[in-house]
Amino acid sequence: MEIITLREDYIKLGQALKAAALVEDGVEAKLVIKDGCVTVNGEVDTRRGRKLYDGDVVCYNGNEIQIKK
């Protein structure tokens, strides 16, 4: 499980995927999110700008990202 430590109050979903190196760029992030391949806290979310806060868990392609403050 990858852990992303927040510098601000939140990180956007697309940015989190890039920060964890699960996608190469924002375009790829946009596509995989739009296609419903990403879950946030167990539910599919198709909003690239979804704000992630401390405790959120993102899953994509068998990889998990945990958001920590």
Strand order of the largest sheet: 1-7-6-3-4
Residue stretches low in confidence (pLDDT < 50, at least 5 long) are: none
* Topology as a string of helices (H) and strands (E): EEHHEEEEE
Mean pLDDT: 95
GO molecular function: RNA binding
InterPro entries: S4_RNA-bd_sf (IPR036986)
Organism: Fusicatenibacter saccharivorans
Pfam families: S4_2
What does this structure look like?
Pfam families: S4_2. With 69 residues, the chain is of the alpha+beta class. The chain has a single domain (2-68), classed as RNA-binding S4 domain (Structural Genomics Hypothetical 15.5 Kd Protein In mrcA-pckA Intergenic Region, Chain A, Roll). It has two helices and seven strands. It has helices spanning 13-19, 26-34, and strands at 2-5, 11-12, 38-40, 43-44, 51-52, 57-60, 63-68. Helix 1 crosses helix 2 (26-34). The mean pLDDT is 95.
